[in-house]
Amino acid sequence: MNAVRKRDLLSLLGCVALYAVIQGLIMVDILGPFWQLNIVLICINIILAVSLNLINGFTGQFSIGHAGFMAVGAYLGAVMTVKLHLPFIVAIIAAAAAAGLLGFIIGLPTLRLSGDYLAIATLGLGEIIRITILNISYVGGASGFMGIPRYTTFTWAFFLMILTIFVIKNLINSSHGRACISVRENEIAAEAMGVDTTRYKVMAFTIGAAFAGIAGSLFSHYFYIAHPASFTFMRSFDILTMVVLGGLGSITGSITGALLLTFISAVLASYPEWRMVIYSLMLIVLMLYRPQGLLGNHEISLAIFKRLMGGVKSGNAQNK
Amino acid sequence: MDFASFLQQLGQQLINGISLGSIYALIALGYTMIYGIIRLINFAHGDIYMLGAYFGYFATAILKMSFIPSLIIAMVLAAITGMVIERAAYRPLRSAPRIAVLITAIGVSLFLEYGSMLLVTPQPRTFPAVFPAEIYNVGGLVLNSQQIVILAVSLILMLVLNYVVHYTKSGKAMRAVSYDTDAAKLMGIDVDKVISFTFAVGSALAAAAGVLVGIYYNSIDPLMGIMPGLKAFVAAVLGGIGIIPGAMLGGVLMGVIEALVSGFFSSTFRDAAAFGILILILLFRPSGLLGKNVREKV
Prior knowledge:
The complex is a heterodimer of chains A (about 325) and B (about 300).
Chain A: H1 2-27, H2 33-58, H3 66-83, H4 88-110, H5 115-134, H6 154-172, H7 175-185, H8 187-192, H9 197-220, H10 233-246, H11 251-268, H12 272-289, H13 302-318
Chain B: H1 3-38, H2 45-62, H3 67-90, H4 98-120, E1 125-126, E2 135-138, E3 141-144, H5 145-167, H6 169-179, H7 181-186, H8 191-217, E4 219-220, H9 226-239, H10 244-264, H11 270-284
Antiparallel strand pairs in B: 1-4, 2-3
């Protein structure tokens, strides 16, 4: 118990230190606006990837409609701050609640489907959400919701990202999380052991959707605009790519995937014509050589570093 | 709107819908065959359709060929492209998790879209008019020559496909692999060859759809494959994915529904209607209209 607390404290300290370093770099203007934007984008993408990993990687439900929930969060958050003049934190909570509620309503009927059919259904639902928003003139319709104030700062994005990782990591390590993993491993066996599979599938879907809503409201409050074209199924594919590239069922994997892919797109931004070509080729090559994702379903942890640095002796000692 | 004009409007939208739908059906056939054989949602299929349109464009506009030869050239080139893609990107992943293959398919799709954008510029191009645009008036309904060509070509291609699948040796092998890959392998069928053949046939059909769309709408661009690709996929699911007649039925239905929604309600809800129907079908008949309900065994 003590060891766990010590480790949590250490990672908390690590996060604060990381925050202080990046915030310091922003303050003294070493990181220009371009990299500031990309750091915020990395934080948002990590929230999206980790929350999608809860659905796809840990519960094993193949969802590719994450952009739809993100859109709900983006628009609802914007309505809260622009039309109702509420504070940002209320907007974020409302966005999470609305996206989560929608996830719950959508999840109940669709999670009866499995495999590819669920994927197709979620893809379709994501597009339906987008097209519905496109036709609501109250939020700007096809030209997008404009004039959203920039409330999202690095601090907001970073701490909401930490919150997401913290909540999902603890959820995975709880009995609920183990139930989710049992659904992924073998749904029939899980059901036979008394796990209420529908309940856990819907729970994972709802929580994942709620965090996507948070990411959406951060997104629209950073880019001044919420536009239906930002939330097409291509965005869902992007998030899915981050999750699969990092490794399904690995939180640190999703973080790595989001970090890597956002960073690659940022670096390639200076070659606009070649950007997507190189990006897609890298995606294909990475998948061909590492189909299980960069980390598989392992986590990066201090223990691995200790083992690497401690050499053979301690490595053997840890093997039971 | 009185009843006579309603009927006329309905008939007109049905004609438009069926011609659009037969294009969807041609794309959907490729989706369904590839899914049937390796259980892969080949997201790059819509981009093969785009490539087909460009091959057709270069054959007619640059090489000044007439319709039939350029259609055949487009189909052959697309078939080769399909086989190359399968060989290079999907075959090495045959034993990998299916989601990895799916991500690779997304990668291939992006590569084709943006690679061709690099090669042929993102500007839309005007497809040359290969037929004199004639308009026929049949009992108050307008039917143009392009629609007749689309219907005729897709009907012929579907008949040919039906013949290939049911009456040739390769077709038999295809059906065998899609029914049970391992058993087919044990019976001495070269599974890799059959998969390659399936990709070739599917891609050729998509290319034909691309050329037909070029003729119908007169405009092609490198991103034209995204939406029709997705809708053709919905059509394949609608009819029952993996089932060839299902894809034909699904495609035509999809076109008709789209035409009716844009004719009677609003064209902005066209896509939403397509996906809405998809969800309903999935919830109430997940195996599709023509699919058999397979009971899950423990």
